[in-house]
Amino acid sequence: MFPKKSLGQNFLTNTDIVASIADAASLSLDETILEIGPGKGILTGELLKRAGKVIAVEKDRELIPILQEKFEKEINKNRLILINEDILTFPFPASIEKYKLVANIPYYITGQIIRQFLTAKKQPETMVLLVQKEVAERIIARDGKESLLSISVKAYGTPTYIKTVKAGSFTPAPKVDSAILLIDNISRVFFNNISEKRFFEILHAGFAHKRKQLFGNLKAVFDEEILRERMRKIGISETIRAEDMSLLEWKKLSEN
After folding, report:
1. Three-class SS of residue 82?
2. The pLDDT of residue 46
3. Domain boundaries, the chain
4. Is the CATH number 1.10.8.100 carried by domain 191-254?
5. What class, spelled out in words, does domain 5-187 have in CATH?
6. What is the pLDDT of residues 47-58, one digit of tens each?
7. In this predicted structure, what is the pLDDT of residue 2?
8. What separation in angstroms does the CA of 117 have from each of 87, 88, 123, 197, 252?
9. pTM for the structure as a whole
């Protein structure tokens, strides 16, 4: 079974990294795990040791027989539910109340996966993802500069950079290193007193032209005088740029 470049397949082979991913998810035997793209099942096996049930969604139908053979006992015991679907269009089972998402996802759908599950009606409690190192660093704002992605993630949960994963941990080896990213405490509590839709309207406008000052960008979604007064009350300069705004400051901008 050769990895398919069209599906962004890079099979994880490093068992130490597999253990680190499972550790980051803080699993227990009464939990349900959603795994995206189990591949040949190296992570699936570890998840089954630590969790009560694993729902594994695999798009590549050629991998399904391999997984069925490898985990025949777990499938027969209903501990592993194997689904041949595209996670981006997969209808999430209504019967599942609580779950954690753990996955080695293709780089090219990282943003879609994060957005899909953080904004879902049934959000996971926790997400542990193997992502491109650069993306993980941007999400935690390692350089001290926020981005549309980092603020969007932090509005729903707490991102933590767990560890770097070298390219040699995969077959085939990708061209760049990866990282284990934990997003914990996922909820919509942040939006209790503000409109989720309005918050993201303002956020997208603020980051629309990165090199411009925030005031100039936000005039697209605010009356100029109201914007000026709101920024004054918050205590932020009209010359500030979006990347220098904190999550709390974005929230204050979005309040009625």
Report:
1. strand
2. 97
3. 5-187, 191-254
4. yes
5. alpha beta
6. 999 999 999 999
7. 44
8. 10, 10, 6, 16, 25
9. 0.91
